[in-house]
Amino acid sequence: MIRALACLYFSFIFQNVAGFVSPSNSGRSSRHHVSWDRSLNDKAFHRIATPLYSEPPLEKPDPSILISAKPGSEQQDAVFAISAAVVGGTIIFVNLLSGLEYVLPDGWFAAWRDYTWPLGLGLIFTAAGVSHFTVKNAYCNMVPPKGSWGGLWQVPALGAEALGLSYEEFHTYWSGAAEIAGGLLLVASGVGIVDIDPKVPSALLGMLVFAITPANIYMFTHDVEMGEGIPPIPYPWGHAGRGVAQMVLLALFWKLTFHY
């Protein structure tokens, strides 16, 4: 944008300088002068219209290498292995946070935890819950269809038919509503609006995060795109990064819930 504006500016200067130094009887026709000016303007506006940088399209992996392309038993083994990795990674981050608490001066870690985590995490989950309704289809795409992973996923959607909701909509809506409720309760308890220990909503949100972990696993095993204008996740490292972020999130909720 700066380069384009500079081009426009110098184009304007050149036009006026050319008109000032060139006498009317210089032998060059006014038509040629106008044509030269217009060519400069066209180049300047072309620079504005042309993006300075365009991100190359994300290369999709060969579907045959995805876990979803493996036999059902291998898919199930992969789901169990990923779940174990999430649990193990969470334990590692809990210990890292405990180590940080140990090396910091007395009271520093507790102040950071008690005065910033409830508000920050609560607002994040409230916003995430709202997005379950504003970009519903993106979250519906994340819901594992019943029977996924060789029949392993058999979670019901009780009452979905009576409510006129699809399987995916039902799980998107209840999880979004739970995130909003949990997030608001964590904020309210953290700032003292309600007389509830932040440990309570922290524990509830931690269990919710663990309960919806299969949606993130499904995104990896099937390389799911959320859509709704949300950029696709690079395979496989983008999914691995999301997995690590989930481990950190679970560790934060654990430390916020179980402290003395």
Please name the defining characteristics of this protein.
single chain, about 260 residues, mainly alpha, 11 helices, globular
Number of helical regions: 11
Q: How many DSSP-defined strands?
A: 0
Largest sheet: none
The ordered H/E elements are: HHHHHHHHHHH
Mean pLDDT: 85
Radius of gyration: 28 Å
How do you describe this structure in short?
This protein has eleven helices and no strands.
Describe the overall structure.
- This protein has helices at 2-21, 30-49, 72-103, 108-134, 136-140, 148-151, 160-163, 167-190, 199-211, 213-222, 237-257.
- The radius of gyration is 28 Å and the shape is globular.
- The chain contains eleven helices and no strands.
- The chain is an all-alpha fold.
- 69% of the residues lie in helices and 0% in strands.
- Helix 1 (2-21) packs antiparallel against helix 2 and helix 10 (213-222) runs antiparallel to helix 11 (237-257).
